[in-house]
Design brief:
With about 400 residues, the protein is mainly alpha-helical. The protein is about 45% helix and about 10% strand.
């Protein structure tokens, strides 16, 4: 598997703290702040922790009221774990060799394993790109809060515009990263300026400016011909990173399938779960355009969501053709790794789903598709056959594992 053992070392230190970006009122617990400062904690970390202690814990467990704080961090975690923000520090667990971590919290649980894997992999790769290319993603905290408000609006993925930094990287500067391999201690330096030649970068000085961009522009990038100002896009940078670590073959194909879901959702070519659910409800035969969801509508929506989750329903507008594409990729990956035995191959595990795809297209032998499931979803489709409702595909899901 190309690139499986490669890693990237930090090229430079991340941007230092910029006080002017802290432009929101964040109340703190003054007593906690003074105690932290007296204990030798630096000011910014002290303010962060003192901010968490400006409120009471959400939950208190009677059996954990009395603890040995020299061996347990449960008192702190009780406060820490009930502050739901987009990112948070995670302390090293007592008695372990696990270090400090930052938890990325914004993605919601998706309906399918494929989606959850896609957004998880995208998040991990984004963290690698930030470190490898020393991205500067700073915007004032007030703009970050405004972005969260925009994200809650209906169809924000297509209609919303979000504050984002205009210059996240300086391609004019000499860029080099340290590459290492898991099977060798040898480290080599590589100039990566050439990796950026095909990307769209803004010109001019970096004045810490930010602008309003669509999600498609932030994720997929934009050229100066399209909008007057160029922006490389997060996904093109991820692909540049994968090129850098020489990730290729079937492994790259698998990653491309996952990353294409992110790309197509950001561009609006595929629906988000919220869009699909809203369309399901508004297109239901019982919906009276009065914002009332009847028990039968609720039951049908839940059953449809369960069917998408277990792979018996694959709406084309929701996952496109990524399901059948992923199956071909998994087959190639199994062959590349030499795991083609019937008991272990991903192709074997996906055979019932692949057969269902064939049956939906008019092919496949009798009995390839579960008759009970077929009848169940035909009944649901009959109830959803009101005018204006798009037909829902009954092809088997080949994204499940």
């Amino acid at each position: 598997m190309g690139g499986a053992g490669y890693g990237v070392g930090v090229r430079a230190t991340p941007p230092e703290h910029l006080p002017e970006y802290d432009d929101t009122d964040a109340p703190i617990n003054e007593e906690a702040y003074e105690a932290l400062i007296a204990g030798g904690i630096d000011e910014m970390m002290a303010r962060h922790v003192a901010w968490m202690y400006s409120r009471d814990p959400l939950v208190i467990y009677r059996e954990k009221l009395e603890q040995d704080v020299t061996t347990s961090s449960d008192h702190y975690e009780n406060i820490q774990s009930t502050n739901w923000n987009s990112v948070r520090f995670k302390l090293p667990p007592p008695g372990s060799d696990i270090g400090w971590r930052v938890e990325f919290r914004t993605p919601e649980l998706q309906l399918t394993d494929f989606e959850n894997a896609a957004f998880s992999i995208f998040t991990v790769l984004l963290s690698r790109v930030i470190i490898a290319f020393n991205l500067n993603l700073y915007v004032p905290m007030s703009k970050n809060d405004a972005n969260m408000e925009t994200a809650h609006e209906e169809d924000a993925v297509n209609k919303g515009r979000f504050f984002f930094r205009k210059q996240i990287i300086k391609p004019s500067e000499p860029l080099a990263v340290q590459l290492y391999h898991s099977t060798s201690p040898a480290i080599r330096s590589r100039d990566i300026k050439g990796e950026f030649d095909r990307l769209n970068f803004p010109t001019g000085e970096d004045n810490n400016d930010y602008d309003l961009m669509t999600l498609a522009e932030i994720i997929n990038g934009k050229s100066s011909e399209e909008s007057g100002e160029a922006f490389p896009g997060i996904l093109p940078l991820v692909h540049a990173y994968l090129d850098l670590i020489e990730c290729s073959g079937a492994t790259r194909d698998v990653l491309n399938c996952y990353l294409d879901l992110v790309r197509l959702r950001a561009s609006g070519e595929l629906q988000t779960a919220a869009q699909w659910m809203r369309g399901f409800v508004t297109g239901h035969k019982d919906y009276q355009k009065d914002s009332v969801i009847t028990p039968s509508m609720n039951d049908d929506l839940i059953e449809a969501c369960l069917a998408i989750s277990d792979g018996t329903l694959v709406p084309e507008e929701f996952l496109g053709r990524l399901n059948s594409r992923m199956q071909m990729v998994l087959q190639n990956l199994a062959e590349e790794e030499g795991k083609t035995s019937p008991s272990s191959s991903p192709q074997t595990r996906a055979e019932p789903a692949a057969a269902a795809d064939g049956a939906a297209a008019g092919g496949g032998a009798s009995g390839d598709w579960d008759d009970a499931n077929r009848q169940r979803w035909q009944d649901i489709l009959t109830r959803l056959s009101a005018e204006g409702v798009d037909p829902v595909s009954l092809r088997g899901a080949s994204l499940r594992r």
